[in-house]
Design brief:
Helix content: 40-55%
Distance between the termini: 77 Å
Number of strands: 5
Number of helices: 5
Length: 202
């Protein structure tokens, strides 16, 4: 093992012994140091020479180059986590939705950039199923994601809204609404939701 790599690994072991890094950080930094050394060696050999990498402590720095490596690794990990969080919509509204969520949808009508009117089978009795349906439609069709989408649901095509604004009869017949991250139900249809204070205003 080249001297530079030995020195880096020895310093890493010492940092772990002093309690400055834990086992996970130790393993991550060890991999990064080894990979960095391998890359530098390949780059050096490409020029016809092999130039060892020297890692030196600087005055006032506690962990020298390894601290920087660990910090860089932590930043990379946080960036990956943040990217995944963003893809999943940080509001939590875009969490995993089952593919079967839209199995009971009979009609989908787009009435605006991110507004959709649906009809579903009358047999859908679970009120929370409507929220899953709305989120699934928003996830698949809205340009603004789940939390920037509006969905109205009916269980009868004859009373379904066809455009905005809706007629009073269409509004009265609506049984569920998802708008900007909030669910509301017709508590005449789903009286069990009345206790949650999430009913349409009469």
């Amino acid at each position: 093992m080249p001297n530079a790599l030995k020195e880096a690994m020895a310093e890493l072991v010492a940092m772990k012994a002093r309690g400055e890094i834990n086992q996970t950080e130790f393993d991550m930094a060890r991999r990064i140091v080894a990979e960095k050394h391998a890359i530098d060696q390949r780059q050096g050999s490409g020029k016809g020479t092999t130039r060892p990498v020297t890692y030196r402590n600087t005055a006032g720095s506690k962990g020298s180059m390894l601290s920087g490596v660990i910090t860089l690794g932590a930043i990379i990990c946080l960036t990956i986590v943040f990217g995944l969080y963003t893809l999943l919509d940080g509001s939590g509204n875009n969490r995993h939705l089952p593919e079967s969520a839209t199995d009971d949808v009979l009609t989908v009508l787009k009435v605006g950039g991110a507004t959709f009117f649906l009809t579903v089978a009358k047999e859908v009795a679970d009120p929370m199923k409507y929220e899953l349906i709305a989120k699934r439609i928003c996830k698949e069709r809205s340009p603004y994601g789940v939390s920037g989408c509006t969905v109205g649901i009916w269980d009868d095509d004859r009373n379904m809204g066809k455009s905005l604004p809706m007629t009073p009869e269409q509004a009265r017949s609506q049984i569920y609404s998802w708008s900007l991250g909030r669910s509301l139900w017709s508590c005449a249809r789903f009286p069990e939701m009345a206790a949650s204070d999430r009913c349409f205003t009469e």
